[in-house]
Amino acid sequence: MELTEESKDWKHIVLTPIKEAEDGSNNYNEFKRKSVFELDAAGYWKFIDGPDYNPPQIPTLQPTQEMRGLDLAGNPTTIRIPGNEAEVQAARDKAKIWLDGDKKALAIIAKAVPVEKLHVLEDCTSAHTAWKALKSEYEPTNTLSALTIMQQIIGNQCKPDDDPVAWLDVMIRLYSRLRDADPKMMPDWDFAKHLITLMTQNDSWLREAEAAGQTFSSQTVIHRLKDEEVELGIAPYITSLNTIVATSKGKGIVARFFRAGVQ
């Protein structure tokens, strides 16, 4: 198992650094997604996980032992219990290329970990165990953050006196943070429905659209909303948010474009 020419220069491979925010959230999911691409392109992902992950089997070392005892005649003697040093060394020699690559992959990962969190890798003897340790350290925190953000999205109803432009901007930012924390927590289709139902209390047309089998993405909804902002003259680059007075107009935005039909 040989490494590519690019992977031999492993010291120059720099992964996205793991960072933690003051609120406890982190960018682990960004680190994970980008690192898989980086490591795979350089030929190191196979030492960590994936379909080509196939670490060599090294027998557990059983050292040769010598014990003092008595022979059948009662005389002092030394009993030698053979170990498997030769077998272990032969297995290591055969796996040298793989083990060298694994050490380099571990070093590449360690460079992306904050100094204050290096203790997470303290007992890791391979790139695979290091990857699992980081997952265990950071993903639970991200899940809690994602749940909090999802609750904020679900509870962020656009009220009659709210600024619809500012409301949409907040929703987009919240969903971006949610995707960073846990990309599987809320599928795009669910977010699109939340945008619609939280913008207007009349969701009968949404149920009709679902019954008709219409599908749409959150980007479709967002683009239609922004088109309506321009049409109504409330887009940020048309008028200052401080001068928006047509707040009630935003309530009919989604209903109107949906009744017109979403492809």
TrEMBL record:
Domain of life: Eukaryota
Pfam families in alphabetical order: Retrotran_gag_2
Species classification: Eukaryota, Fungi, Dikarya, Basidiomycota, Agaricomycotina
Natural source organism: Lentinula raphanica
UniProt-recorded name of the protein: Uncharacterized protein
